[in-house]
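input
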Amino acid sequence: MPRFVHFEIHADDPQRALSFYRDVLGWSFEQWNGPNEYWMATTGGREEPGINGAIIPRHLGQATVNTVEVSDIDAFVTKVTEHGGKLVGQINEIPNVGRGAYFTDTEGNVFGAIEFLKECEE
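output
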């Protein structure tokens, strides 16, 4: 059963959002060394319940995107579309992480799915 494993907060001004969440919630951030503007958010220790996420420049017309982990992104695309959802764009290769994609559900809500590289799994 896929569970939410990551979130993205979309921001018009990512630096302003970083400051807000750092000052209000005590989160820490590290800029990802990848091809896109992306700041990884640590919201607590691994031993604590909850998930970590990221802050990114606004796109997809949404404020927050929750992401589920899947074992096979290609099979998940098929499952989503067979049940009335849609793939938004294409499956993306995420260097040193895996493959991910965005979808809309039957109500037009955007969510993400990620298939981690086998060597990234714990």
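quick obs: The radius of gyration is 15 Å.
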